[in-house]
Amino acid sequence: MSQPLPAESLTGKVALVTGSSRGIGADTIRYFAEAGADVVINFRNKAPRAEKLAAEVRELGRRALVVGADLTDPASVADMFAAVKAEFGGLDVLVLNASGGMEANMGEDYALRLNRDAQVNVLQTALPLLREGGRIVFVTSHQAHFIRTTPTMPEYEPVALSKRAGEDALRELIPSIEAQGIQFVVVSGDMIEGTITATLLERANPGAISQRRESAGRLYNVSEFAAEVAQAAVDPVPADNTRLIGDVSGFVAE
C-alpha cells in the first residue's frame, strides 16, 4: 500500500492510536509516522509487538512512545495520558481504534464497557491534551453503524450494539469537542480481511467472511482500511461527521 498522506503533512504533530500494536492500528501508526508525526503506540497485552513497531517508527526519524493501558480501567487511561503529556506536552490526533467483545472469559458486560464506556472516558481524558485544530477519529464497522436498521450475524450482534452505543455517546460530545476547536469524525468500514474480529467471526460462523465478501464484491484488507483511517485524520470532515468506506448497498440508512 502506498503512503496515503502527503509527505511531511503531519510534521510537528503527535498522534495516538489506541490498540496499535497490530492490525489496523499498527498500520495507521506507520502511515502517520511516514507523514512526519511523532506517535503514541497503545497496547493492552502485546508489548513486544508494540516495541517492534516503535523501532520501525524511530528508524524513520520520528519519536515513538509505547504505553500499555487497559482502556476499561480509568486509572490506567489516566496514567497513559500523563505519560503522553510528560513526553510530548500535548496531542494533535486521537484515533479510537481499539475495540472488542468477542473474546472469551471477559465478562458479560465487557463489550459495552470497552466499546462505549471506555471510548467516552479515553476521549474525555485526552481532551485537555488535544491542541486546537486537532482531530478525533472513531473507528467502527458498517455492521455496528447500521445495526439499528440492518441486522448482522448473531455472533457479532453484541459487539455491533455496543459499538453503536459508543458511537452515539461520542456523537453527543461533538458540540463540546468542537467548542474547543477540535474536530470529530467516524470512519465506518465493512468487515476487514485479516483482522482478529474477522478471524473470530469465521471461527464462530464458518463461511461468514466469504459470504460477506461475495455480497460486497470485495472487502478491504488491513493496510487499505488503515489508509482510510489515516486520511480521516487530515481530510476535511464531512457535514455528518461520517466517512463510509466500501460498499454500503446492503445496509439501510436511518
UniProtKB/TrEMBL annotation:
<dbReference type="InterPro" id="IPR036291">
    <property type="entry name" value="NAD(P)-bd_dom_sf"/>
</dbReference>
<dbReference type="InterPro" id="IPR002347">
    <property type="entry name" value="SDR_fam"/>
</dbReference>
<protein>
    <submittedName>
        <fullName>SDR family oxidoreductase</fullName>
    </submittedName>
</protein>
<dbReference type="Pfam" id="PF00106">
    <property type="entry name" value="adh_short"/>
</dbReference>
<comment type="similarity">
    <text>Belongs to the short-chain dehydrogenases/reductases (SDR) family.</text>
</comment>
<keyword id="KW-0560">Oxidoreductase</keyword>
